[in-house]
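Exercise 7b. Backbone tokens:
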């Protein structure tokens, strides 16, 4: 049994933030009932690369979930959701603030019938404040939260990280908030709202930017691959045209690295014994390390630094990931059977629990695959369900 085996979740979101939040719950045993529009379902079903007309991304995002079609824009559809919400522990939604209230699915309405309900609300700007009604995607949250401004090189425009990082971080806060709220409910019997704004989730990652600005009037800028004020820490080009990431910014680590590359003079330099001295000479150190890396192939560099116990690594692409022995040893690359003759490599589950690990039970379901099972289990007759279907309610 998974650690969330007895937790029942109703997902009313689509695309990334809400569904990624519930994915984390489903991977550890929660029953996640995903509500989708009868007309096409979650748009993510058609995003990026497809397998038999179904998005490969969807197969991951909706793994272990049950798909139920309900038209939220119809009064009868809203009534069905209210009925389902009576018997769940968590509702997760990522519509624009005000939509749930318009449909009569706001927290106060649902909590009247289910006072222990926890509702996770993910949105661009949060449920309150002057920007609450603005549409907000993860990319906007990354911009407002400060991440985009510090990503890239100083002589070029800000860039994005190559994944939907803002949505993902907000989703993880949604899971954390839901589990904390459930823990509190165990003590009080009362549920609550978990309000996660995408920009705030990103902003929470911004380290010491605010106090640095307040005390020193310092604005952190784009610095490329370096780690400002912490040296040496950078990416360096090797002889065979590949990059190695080296983090030799610990005092003893720095000394070991200098000895490994035959720079005893730098290892013994008292000015470089602490980070403040190294930071003042970071350009010099980057040049020295870069010149050494340029003389050797990547594997030689990695072997020397591993022997010296200096944190280092190559920059992996997906081909490196799926062939890496460490990924495989920790079950981070799973092979899932699609049919008798086909299988698919998928990411493993994080985190690793020793007694109740997460598990991929099935991949993203067909649209409405579980509608009859869920609604009949909630007390609707098959005649009622067919009547709903005939009228495009489900």
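Sequence design result:
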């Amino acid at each position: 049994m998974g650690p969330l085996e007895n937790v029942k979740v109703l997902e009313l979101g689509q695309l990334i933030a809400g569904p990624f939040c519930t994915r984390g719950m489903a991977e550890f045993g929660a029953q996640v009932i995903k509500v989708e529009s009868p007309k096409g379902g979650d748009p993510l079903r058609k995003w990026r690369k497809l397998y038999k007309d179904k998005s490969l991304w969807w197969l991951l995002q909706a793994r272990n979930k049950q798909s139920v079609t309900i038209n939220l824009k119809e009064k009868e559809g809203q009534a069905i959701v209210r009925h389902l919400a009576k018997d769940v522990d968590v509702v997760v939604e990522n519509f624009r603030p005000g939509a749930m209230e318009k449909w009569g699915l706001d927290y106060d309405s649902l909590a009247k019938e289910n006072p222990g309900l926890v509702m996770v609300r993910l949105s661009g700007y949060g449920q309150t404040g002057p920007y609450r009604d603005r549409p907000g995607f993860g990319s906007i949250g990354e911009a407002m939260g400060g991440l985009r401004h510090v990503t890239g090189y100083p002589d070029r425009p800000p860039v994005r990280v190559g994944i939907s990082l803002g949505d993902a971080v907000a989703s993880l806060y949604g899971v954390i908030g839901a589990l904390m709220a459930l823990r509190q409910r165990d003590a009080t019997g009362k549920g609550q709202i978990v309000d996660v704004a995408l920009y705030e989730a990103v902003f929470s990652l911004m380290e010491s930017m605010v106090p640095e600005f307040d005390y020193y009037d310092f604005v952190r800028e784009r610095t490329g691959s370096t780690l400002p004020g912490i040296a040496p820490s950078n990416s360096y080009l090797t002889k065979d045209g590949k990059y190695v990431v080296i983090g030799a910014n610990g005092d003893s680590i720095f000394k070991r690295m200098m000895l490994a590359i035959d720079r005893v003079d730098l290892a013994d330099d008292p000015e470089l014994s602490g980070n403040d001295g190294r930071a003042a000479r970071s350009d010099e150190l980057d040049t020295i390390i870069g010149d050494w890396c340029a003389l050797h192939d990547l594997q030689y560099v990695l072997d020397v630094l591993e022997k010296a116990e200096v944190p280092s690594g190559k920059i992996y692409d997906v081909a490196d990931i799926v062939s890496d022995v460490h990924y495989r040893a920790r079950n981070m690359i799973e092979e899932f059977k699609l049919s008798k003759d086909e299988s698919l490599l998928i990411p493993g589950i994080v985190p690793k629990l020793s007694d109740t690990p997460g598990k991929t039970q099935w991949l993203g379901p067909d649209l409405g695959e579980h509608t009859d099972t869920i609604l009949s289990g909630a007390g609707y007759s098959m005649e009622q369900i067919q009547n709903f279907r005939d009228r495009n309610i489900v």
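Instructor comment: DSSP finds 18 helices and 13 strands in the chain. The longest helix spans residues 165-188.
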